[in-house]
Amino acid sequence: MNKDKTVYDGFLTVQEKDFRMRILLPPDRQLKRAKLHCSWKLKHLLHGYEHIVKQRLQQSPDLVSFILELKTVLEVGLKSRPECSSISPPHYYSQLISEIETLGWDKLLFIDTEFRTLRLKAEDSSRRQHILTIKFQSKHPAEAPECLADLPVPLAMTWTPQSNLQQLHNHFLLVLESLTEFWDVLDEIDSWTWILEPEKPSRADTMRRIAIENNVSIKVEVDPRHPKMLPECFLLGAEHVVTPLRNKLNANIHSWNPNSSVLHNLRDVLEITFPSPATHEKSNFSTECGICYSYRLEAAIPDQVCNDPRCGQPFHQACLYEWLRTLPSSRQSFNIVFGECPYCSKPITVKMSAQKR
After folding, report:
1. Where would I find the RING-type domain in this sequence (predicted)?
2. φ and ψ at 177, to 5 degrees?
């Protein structure tokens, strides 16, 4: 690397794996006082062999002999650490940089030091921001990369050895456009109602549990491919409150208008006005569990309610199940436990969770 022949830089190839290294010799070019700099992968591979490398630096008659001996050490290291991957050839990096330049550096959010994982940003027609994560495989470009994104549907990317970043990004934009109406539907629900679950919805979530009143809610599952069609609906709460709502839903379901928004249709078929951030506080619907006295138990919220109108106390499913199963008076039929409400002693039931079966 210099006229004095004291700086050497390049790749050492062992078992078809390339390792970057630099050797710095003192002005007198004495090998025993040389300094060896290398990539973290080479350092990892030589871990435990440092004393051998130092010994070879002291005893090797010349640089070529030292390199050959170092290759022998690496051969042993590779056999004991097969997980060490090779550094890609130079054209891999130059090709990738060229593709990023064509795509636009403004779309690149992240790239790791190995140039194997990239995160690209994209924007749909409603100006929502999305991220596409691309993980190139060891046999790139012959092997398709792993593509990940926060989507409610599988991300199927077409890949050939001639494919590039621009094509992946363009395909991702097409997928985003196909889901724009789905996200519009959920964004309207999120903006104008109180969402009980999920606590922090992601772009992949298709379910919303919407508060109707204290201890009463509706869980809707929106189809990403047909977002304005009637979603799956499940009413939760005390039976004396839920039953009239269920009857209205069944009676008015024929009037569902796929040209109108899901939220507008839900208001019409249930004949209600949903509480919203403009009219109510979310704390009005965050009633604590009557057993553990907390609102959230891991990811669950209280969704089991005593059906007695004078009680209406909510419980976590897990808490109520554990409570009832300890009472001698409780009985079980298949996956349902029958017992008494811990507050009013009126009959109450709970289904066993899938984990308990």
Report:
1. 289-345
2. -65, -35
